[in-house]
Amino acid sequence: MDAHEIIKKPVVTEKSTRLLEMNKYCFMVDRRASKIQIKQAIEELFKVKVKDVNTMRVLGKIKRMGKHEGRRPSWKKAVVTLEPGNRIEFFEGV
């Protein structure tokens, strides 16, 4: 897989913004991607050194519209910890 296929988009929430202080960044990633693939993709795309990768599966929420029920798609989230001194400029000013 290509690095752009593995890393889909950044996750910008209140919690992920607080994690920036600890040099941790959150991304929505491909569900089939492993931690090693995620690490290589981040290092390739942003030219930084990755210390650790934590992943989790996020289940889609059940949504109702009257009596009809549906579900949002499930996705995979990666929390990437960078080596000290490395920063991703994309998240600056968030």
Q: If you had to describe this structure to a student in words, what would you say it looks like?
A:
The protein is globular, with a radius of gyration of 15 Å. With 94 residues, it is α+β, with helices and mostly antiparallel strands. It contains three helices and six strands. 23% of the residues lie in helices and 37% in strands. The chain has a single domain, classed as RRM (RNA recognition motif) domain (Alpha-Beta Plaits). The chain has a four-stranded antiparallel β-sheet. It has a two-stranded antiparallel sheet with strand order 4-5. It starts with a helix and ends in a 12-residue tail after the last strand. Strand 4 and strand 5 form a beta hairpin. The mean pLDDT is 94.
List keywords for this structure.
94 residues; alpha+beta; Alpha-Beta Plaits; 6 strands; globular
Helix content: 10-25%
Distance between the termini: 29 Å
Distinct helical segment count: 3
Number of strands: 6
Please tell me the overall pLDDT. Answer: 94
Please mark out the parts with pLDDT under 50 across 5 or more consecutive residues, or reply none. Answer: none
Topology:
Blueprint: H1 3-6, E1 7-10, H2 14-19, E2 24-29, H3 35-46, E3 50-58, E4 62-65, E5 68-71, E6 75-82
Give a short summary of the structure.
The protein has helices at 3-6, 14-19, 35-46; strands at 7-10, 24-29, 50-58, 62-65, 68-71, 75-82. By secondary structure, it is an alpha+beta fold. The protein starts with a helix and ends in a 12-residue tail after the last strand.
